[in-house]
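Run log, item B.
One chain of 827 residues. Sequence copied directly from the ordering sheet:
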Amino acid sequence: MINKALIEYTSNNIPASIEDISSLIYSAQCVYQQISSKLTFKSNWKQKIQNKIESLMENDRLISKHFMSTTKDEERKKAIVLQKLNPNSDNKQIAGFDSSECLKFWGDVWKKRDKTDLGLGVNKRVTGVEDNAPDVSDEFISNLIEYLPNWKAPGCDAVYNFFIKKLDSLHKFLFQEIRNIINGVSQPQGWFYTGITFLIPKKANSVDPKDLRPITCMPCLYKLVTKCVNEKIAVYADTYDLITEFQLGSKRHCQGAKELALLNRRVNEVYGNKLLCAWIDVKKAFDSVSHEFLFEVLENSGLPKWITKFMMSIIPNWRVSLRLGKELLGTVNIDRGILQGDSLSPQLFVLVLDPLSRILSLKYPSMSINTGEDKSLTFSTNHFLFIDDLKLFAQKEETLARMMEDVNIYFKLAGLEKNFEKSATNCYLLRNEATLMDGLDSYRYLGVLEDRCSNVLKEDVLKNIKEEMQKRIGRLSETKLNAVNLFRAINEHALSLINYYIGLLNLEPSCFEEMDKFVRKLLADLKIHMKPACKERLYLPRDTLGRGLVSVAFKAEKMLLDFKTNLERRKLISLRKAAILWAEQKRKTHMATITEFLHCKYGTTTLDEIAKSLRDLQIESLLLSIKKKRLHSKLFESLENNTFDIPTSSTWLKKGNISPKSEAMLSFLQDRNVFFRNSDEKCPHCKSSPKTVDHLATRCSRMLNSDYTRRHNEIVRCVHMHLCRRFGMKKSKRLKNHSVQSIMSNSSAEIRVDTTIPTELKIQYNKPDIFLYDKKENLIWIIEVGVTSIDNLKSVEVEKMHKYDILASELQLIHKAKVKIVPIVLT
């Protein structure tokens, strides 16, 4: 409807600029919100409760005021101090400076510096595509829009990507305007280049502006335009090798940091972990780049001229609106640094440091590692670079010192500054350039702890992962998330911590299984998983009676197989990948033997068989383990029985809105392992049969007229409420407020509950649980509810299906209507 209105409007009022398009999208966004929002009416009982709350709060305020007025000054001061020192407080507060001080600090950060000319120029590269025209087709832009995140935080225009996607009636105007901006035909207004920068505290009780982290949100339309340009830069960079092999910060078709970390480990191993190294950290790297130097790099990079012109047209217009909490501090021009907040900024920074990487590679000796049995092909380097994380290494102190001199010169030329405190070295000659490491010190490079000899401290890394995983799971458990969302959050926020290190650290299968055991213990301590319950069930999908927890062991199998497959496919076109694969094969790591391991574990014979059905094989192995357990297997026997409706039986797990602890207890009951410690104990009701879950749930004769009847009536009440809502007799969704009436009727249907159905013949079974007569369809439903054990399910269903055959025949003759018998049998 909105698209139709826009088509009609734009037929007479063609958008002439990006501002017009933004206004139309925002207007449509507001209309959509008004149309889709539901009208809410104030309820009297809510107002009464609110009035009571306000009255109690006022009384509490008066009591507190009286208490404070009668308390001694020293006690009040002590209470204030204790409150400030409370270690349990996670609130991050801003104190110790005013708004003008904060604005001045960040204004100075992005203030232009005097140009430095140290004689170290940027060599010009010739690719032959400098005069190429921009090729930004409608299809190209449309493909980019399709994969935009719907609800990414917008900028000052408040336009979301969701509406850019859905308002396809504006796409032809938007596509043309994007081309005009890229070609320099159109020049957007200032808002287009203005980001909203939120200053977020890095730590609790921040007292200085430098303790704030700037997070910038650019307008989504700006990010779309720069994304188009960035995609073209990435294609040119890959095609014409514009970025060195040692900078993987923006490389495609690779796992950048992980591959660099593997190469780093291999290089040091080949040279006996005796290389002299320098780990260099750049202070406020993105915020320090000189614009003049950036333009020089772009002009000499070999990229098409239209890209350079586009960058030179937008960079001078960069500015941000600073916000501290809810307070607007002011607007600052970005006269230095690369504006963050879009996909283009990392690419630009990588291009800035690319000449440095080439200088180091050409001037200084490199360390070589083999890429296969043919020793003539080697991978050689003397440094690694991931965005701004730089590591230098050499065999001689003098060589490393000269490399550091060139780095310092290049940094001054680019406007960058080395962070002495966060940089490190094991070379005594560089003690004035970075922190000198002793035998006990370690440095975290690319997420991996290394000692001064570049040995990976695997145990320390695993310890840190477990500690952080425990903290995150603990914090998530304190939230009010339901069971489904909690497990999803644990998978994405906590268990994902191990992802990067799978394939990076040489971890055996037993280590991954130990990690799974560690997670299960955490969940058991938090009562999210009951310890005697079925542990395999945790890892089954929720639509298969599982709980949907990710298994670290299973995830590792998938990731290692994919990583190895990628290395094997690209080893002939990438010396880097060939070197990594050869190193893994020489060391016979778990990743190198993952294919054979999976063949042995799952009984497969081909790689394609594993790749296509690994997840199914993993689930099958879980079910096979469950079948070996006498009690746990009871529930999962139903998966092979067509009598059971597995998708419906899993609804409470897949879509239920219950707490994690309740779900754990209910799953524990279904696993039938509640009384395993006292297997000889008798039923407390009948005193004769063994005390088991199945016996207490359905088989105890002493509970038939009490607990079982009450449960049966609750099920009938639930079905009755659903039918009442279905035929318009009631609107309420609250089951606890629903009362069952024997007979209810309206123009659509008649519903009888547990009442005798009058017939001409005397029939023994003439009192079904629910009798429903659909008057419009002239259809009668006889609904019978039953609860039984899994072993008796089939017989009970057949019994209830045929119990009312005679009654159905009589009703068909009396009402001249179709009659259907529906047995609802639960276990």
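Observations after the first pass:
- The radius of gyration is 35 Å.
- The longest strand covers residues 779-787.
Flagged for discussion on Thursday.
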